[in-house]
Each structure stands twice: as C-alpha cells, then as structure tokens.
C-alpha cells in the first residue's frame, strides 16, 4: 500500500511527519475544529483520480466554520485547489482518503474564534473488511447528540466523542458497529455513518430532524435510489423497525455502502447483504470511479 509523504498546512506543502500544532492550541485543547472526509477514487480504465463530490464537501465545511464563528476562514477556492494538489503531490497508486480540517491554531480560551488554520492530507485507507459479508450492529445505550447541544449537522471534531464511546462499547460487546437513538428514542444514525432500511420494498432513512449529519453520501444514495426507481421515505424510524427490516445498510465516505446483516444478534432478512443493498453498492461504485457517464459533475478530476 502507498504511504502519505506530503501534507499541506496553511497552503504550504511539507513532509507529512513534520506537520505541527502546539499541544495547548485551542483546536487541540478544546477540540475546536471542523473537518471533511473525502475520497479520491481511481478509474480502473485510465488510472486517473477524481475527488468525489468535492464541492458539496467544501460547502458543508464553510457552513461548519460559520456556525463555529471562525474568523477569516480560508476561501473555498483555496481549499479546493489544495485538495486536488495534495492528491497530486502524494501520487497514490490506489484510492486515497482525504482529510480536510480547519481549527483554531494558537493558545487561547474556549471563546477564541481565531486565528484559523487549516490542513489537508491524503492517506491510504482500506475498505471495510466486512464490506462483502456485512456488519453486526447493536443499538447503543449511548444517545445521539442533539441539535440544541452539539449540532450534529456540523462536522465538528468534538461531535465524534459520542460516536467514539458508542463504538468502543459496541466492540467490547462483540459487535462491529453501534447504532444510536435520538433523545426522543427514534433512530438517528450509526457511529460515523448514516443508515438506510428496506421495509416492504421501500427504502427508509431517518430525516434531517433526527439529529443526523447531513451526509453527502446519504444524499448520493437518495439520488441513486430515485434513479433506480426505488421508492424512498425520509421519516422518523422506530428502534424495532431495525429488527423487522428486510435489509439495512450504512453509508458514509469512510464506510462507503456496507450492509448490516444483524442487529442486537437478530438477523436482518436472511442474514446476508440484500439485493437492493448490492444494487446500490454497484451504482455507487460506478459513479465514484467514473465507470459510468452518470453525474460527471460529482467527480473533480485530479
């Protein structure tokens, strides 16, 4: 597997191992940072790379910096150029995972809003080992953060502490992934991924008011499902719907699309990835790699 050797920090390319922040900077001390995870996919026909839905990720990052009240954030154009450049500089020979992050970089207080620095890195990241067979998930005893506490639609680094606790507990109990409920007891999402269920031939996903991240991958699935003629509902989802669903899958930049084949040790459907999940996996794979002519606007060529 290729290795990352170059990172861009505040517009300057430098050796990956030499990137530094002071340990008492606000970004480190209080987790005052927002980030995006993206992927650069390799087209198998010509070896070219494209960053998937780069513009949508950059728009969400700008929204996050606004809500976090960052002073003088970097421009979208600056960040867009840097994302493409960091892929070029690292010259991967397989897919790359891209981390773009903005943070408060100097020592300050919890109320500090600047100065804002940023970093972008391209890293190797293998696909989930359970991509083909599916995940064993559990409904976590930890509750999803709420919009009035730590807005989950903002991709803030600190928001992921709740997901970390849920994932650690799930793995200690022998599961692959944790599913979180809202404070109202409705299904929200998995720890670091959105969730879809198939019920009576209808694809169902928790709505935006269910304390979810407004996921770019979730939006992609909604579009692909509509184009495939699969009916979709965005609504409140009860916990027990997980137990009676015909199929369940997670989606996100890191997870991509991966089936959930059991929840709380109850099999989902026949306990194997379902036909609709596999159909959407194939459609997603084609559109991110550019082996289809569909949605060229989603692929930013490196």
Helical content, roughly? 25-40%
The whole-angstrom Rg is 19 Å
Largest β sheet strand count, sense and barrel closure:
9 strands, mixed
Distance between the termini: 20 Å
Rounded average pLDDT: 97
Shape: globular
Low-confidence stretches: none
Beta percentage is 25-35%
From N to C, what is the helix and strand string? EEHEEHHEEEHEEEEHEHEEEHE
How would you describe this protein?
This protein has 302 residues and is α+β, with helices and mostly antiparallel strands. It contains 7 helices and 16 strands. The strands form 2 sheets. Strands 7, 8, 9, 10, 11, 12, 13, 14 and 15 form a 9-stranded mixed beta sheet that branches. Strands 2-1-6-5-3-4-16 form a 7-stranded antiparallel beta sheet. A hairpin with a 2-residue loop joins β10 (194-199) and β11. The longest helix has 15 residues, at 76-90. The radius of gyration is 19 Å and the shape is globular.
Features:
Aminotransferase-like, alpha+beta, Probable branched-chain-amino-acid aminotransferase, single chain, 16 strands, 7 helices, transaminase activity, nine-stranded mixed β-sheet
Chain-wise SSE layout:
Layout lengths: L5 E4 L2 E4 L10 H4 L3 E10 L6 E4 L1 H14 L8 H15 L5 E9 L11 E8 L11 E9 L16 H13 L4 E5 L5 E4 L3 E6 L2 E4 L10 H12 L4 E3 L6 H4 L2 E6 L3 E8 L2 E2 L7 H15 L9 E3 L1
Family: Belongs to the class-IV pyridoxal-phosphate-dependent aminotransferase family.
GO molecular function: transaminase activity
Protein name: Probable branched-chain-amino-acid aminotransferase
């Amino acid at each position: 597997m290729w290795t990352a050797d170059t990172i861009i920090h505040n517009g300057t390319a430098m050796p990956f191992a030499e990137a530094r922040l002071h340990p008492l900077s606000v970004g480190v001390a209080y987790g005052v940072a927002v980030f995006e995870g993206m992927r650069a996919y390799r087209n198998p026909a010509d070896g070219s790379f494209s960053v998937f839905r780069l513009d949508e990720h950059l728009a969400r990052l700008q929204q996050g910096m606004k809500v976090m009240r960052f002073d003088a954030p970097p421009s979208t154009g600056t960040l867009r150029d840097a994302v493409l450049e960091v892929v070029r500089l690292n010259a991967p020979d397989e897919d790359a995972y891209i981390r773009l992050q903005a943070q408060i970089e100097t020592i300050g207080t919890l109320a500090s809003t600047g100065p804002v620095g940023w970093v972008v890195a391209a890293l190797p990241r293998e696909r989930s080992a359970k991509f083909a067979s599916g995940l064993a998930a559990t409904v976590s005893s930890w509750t999803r953060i709420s919009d009035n506490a730590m807005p989950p639609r903002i991709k803030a680094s600190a928001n992921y502490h709740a997901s970390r606790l849920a994932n650690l507990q799930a793995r200690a109990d022998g599961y692959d992934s944790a599913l979180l409920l809202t404070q109202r007891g409705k299904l929200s999402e998995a720890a670091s991924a959105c969730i879809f269920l198939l019920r009576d031939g209808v694809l169902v996903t928790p709505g935006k008011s269910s304390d979810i991240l407004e996921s770019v991958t979730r939006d992609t699935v909604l579009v692909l499902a509509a184009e495939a003629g699969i009916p979709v509902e965005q609504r409140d989802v009860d916990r027990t719907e997980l137990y009676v669903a015909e199929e369940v899958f997670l989606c996100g930049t890191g997870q991509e699309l991966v089936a959930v084949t059991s929840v709380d040790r109850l099999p989902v459907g026949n306990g194997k990835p379902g036909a609709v999940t596999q159909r959407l996996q194939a459609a997603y794979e084609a559109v991110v790699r550019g082996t289809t002519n569909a949605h060229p606007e989603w692929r930013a060529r490196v």
